[in-house]
Amino acid sequence: MSAQSSSSTDVADAGRVPRAGKRDVWLVFWIVPAFYTAFGVIFFALARVMPPPRPDVTTDQMVHFFHAHALTIKIGFGILVLIVGGAGIANGIVAYHMKRMTVGSVMAYCYLGAMSVGALPGCLLVAFCFLTAVYRPGRDPQLLALLYDLGLLSYVGSLGCFATAYFAFAVAILYDKNEIFPKWLAYVSIWQIVTEIMAVPVFVSKAGPFAWNGSIAFWLGVVVFGFWLSCVIVFLMKATERQPVDEPPLD
Amino acid sequence: MANAEQTAADLDAAAASSVSSAARQRTLHTPGDGHMWVMVLGDLIIFGAYFIIFMVHRAMKPQEFLASEVHLNINIGVLNTLVLLASSWFIARSVQAARADDHAQARRLTYLGGLCGVAFILIKAYEWSTKIDQGYTISTNEFFMFYYMLTGVHLFHVSLGLLILSITLRELRNPRRCRLFMVEAGATYWHMVDLLWIVIFALLYVMR
Q: Among A218, B22, B39, B93, which one is least packed by beta carbons within 10 Å?
């Protein structure tokens, strides 16, 4: 854009009430609820990963699961591998607002790094396991059973990276003096760490509350995650609204 | 209401005779800040869900749970309960000292409370190691899975509490800049950790 047209735009804007927040940040923001809605539809309705199928089933039943849901797994996870970058965008805008805090950038980088590593086992691996399983349905049933276990264990059992990210998020919020996010959101993130800890036994438990489909390891975790995510989206929106349009770009 | 205020004022006067009128007013508000109360009440709801799920599964396998409970060492459980109650007592007195502007005493009491917290972790580590030595691990049965997970996630809360107490100590180190609500919020969290342990102790060790 030339300097002349830029100044004429400024003159035109001067008469109007400036819209709160920066346009590019708003664009990124709206991708977050859109991505998580698609994520929910894919994982719940199409790929049948949520609620997870039972761990205490025979090899034949695992093979049957892949045969019965082959088409929806292909559609759902086919879309997911295309739009999974939305997870990066969601982490990016959180890190962006974390960088606006008085704590500086370090916690934002911790959050971004931990979430990025966590997305591989926590989101992508199950998609590739299930897509591989339905790619050649005539494969050895034991191999299909392996993909079933590997996909679901990695999906529910990838814990440490997320716990680290939540901790960095909580510390940043508690130290921040710019009040980008409310302090209680830090404590909601601590609950997330609690639910991650409670999911550790998925690697030894095949049935009951601590199995990968259990009331504690899975369901309570999902409820707290849903609450946390809703809060984060609402307060990302408020943080974007409150950001002055003339705030200089971050380093 | 007037009576309640009177009682609160009397209690306060008994606790510290030289307390200022401003400090007396402070005792009438909800201690700490609203954010910490969100943490405490929400955490209690989450733990409440864990406890209900424990009771449901206990009701499904009463024999297995009863047979497993007897392998826990109730003496160690009682010792840890006393250690944590003592720590709560120190922390409560520390808040009173901070309200009376006796920051040195408040610091000493917070250190004592924190030491009790460390002692709790060491005793719990000893208890876990003896259980593992005896062959009772997380995969022994559902009761022991609950035992390790409930006490483990509680240990995480104790560790977090020690971190919060260290922040309280930093506040108390500089009397002029000390924010009383931070001291109260830390104590509120610590008492929650204590309360959670008492319920866990009752459910795992005592209930027959």
A: B22
Tokens of A225: 């995650």
Q: At what angle do helices A23-40 and A70-83 cross, to 10 degrees?
A: 160
Is residue B77 located within the same domain as residue B107?
A: yes
Chain centroid offset of residue B76 CA: 17
Statement to judge: residues B155 and B193 lie in one domain: yes
Asked if B138 has any chain A CB less than 8 Å from its own CB, the reply is yes
> What percentage of chain A reaches a pLDDT higher than 90?
76
Termini Cα distance of chain B: 42
Convert the pLDDT of each residue in B121-178 to its tens digit. 999 999 999 999 999 999 899 999 999 999 999 999 999 999 999 999 998 998 888 8
Q: Above 60 in pLDDT, residue A48?
A: yes
Q: Which of B34, B39, B46 comes nearest A220 by C-beta?
A: B46
Nearest Cα residue in chain B from A221: B46
A40: left (phi over 0), alpha (psi -120 to 50) or beta: alpha
Pick from A184, A186, A215: CB nearest B53? A215
pLDDT band at A16 (very low <50, low <70, confident <90, very high): low
CB A85 within 8 A of CB A124: no
Q: What is the CATH number for B127?
A: 1.20.120.80
Domain locations in chain A?
Answer: 22-242
Domain co-membership, B10 together with B99? no
A15/A61 Cα distance (integer angstroms):
67
Same domain membership, residue B18 and residue B102:
no
Torsion, Cα of A51, A57, A62, A63 (10° steps): -150
C-alpha dist (Å) from residue A200 to A181, A197, A218, A229, B156: 29, 6, 11, 21, 13
Q: How confident is the model at residue A173 (pLDDT cuts 50, 70, 90)?
A: very high
Total domain count, chain B: 2
**Domain, as residue range, for B9:** 1-30
Q: Which residues of B touch A215 (CB under 8 A)?
A: 53
Q: Using the beta-carbon criterion (under 8 Å), do A184 and B34 form an inter-chain contact?
A: yes
- Complex ipTM: 0.85
Largest CA distance in chain B: 59
Which of A193, A195, A205 is the closest to B145 by Cβ?
A: A205
A window 187-246, beta carbon within 8 A of B: 187-188, 190-191, 193-195, 197-198, 200-201, 204-205, 208-210, 215-216, 220, 224
Same domain, B201 and B123: yes
CA distance A216 to chain B (A): 7
How near does any CA of chain A get to the CA of B17, in Å? 35
